[in-house]
């Protein structure tokens, strides 16, 4: 499949420089970069969904704390002033 995209001159220059440094065809480098970004995005989305599910499971099981408890822990941890 052929897809044509328009790049800003700055991005095109960076892509060509990367390809030249690697001694590879610019199209191959672009395809690898896109593949890596798409794989990262899919993994990041999956990890986000799993984290949300763990949080929901914890809540349903009664494993949670109040905001005040959380805020106090953060104030101690980062030596933050107490709001007045």
Describe the structure.
By secondary structure, this protein is mostly helical. Helices cover 73% and strands 0% of the residues. The protein has one domain. The chain has three helices and no strands. The longest helix has 35 residues, at 26-60. It is elongated and about 55 Å long. It comes from Fischerella thermalis CCMEE 5318.
Summarize model confidence as the mean pLDDT: 95
**Tally of distinct domains:** 1
Estimated structural class: mainly alpha
Topology order in helix (H) and strand (E) letters:
HHH
Unreliable residue runs: none
- Quaternary state reads single chain
Largest sheet: number of strands, sense, barrel closure? none
How far apart the termini lie comes to: 62 Å
Number of helices: 3
**Amount of helix:** over 70%
Radius of gyration: 23 Å
Identify the overall geometry.
Answer: elongated
Strands, total number: 0
Protein name: CopG family transcriptional regulator
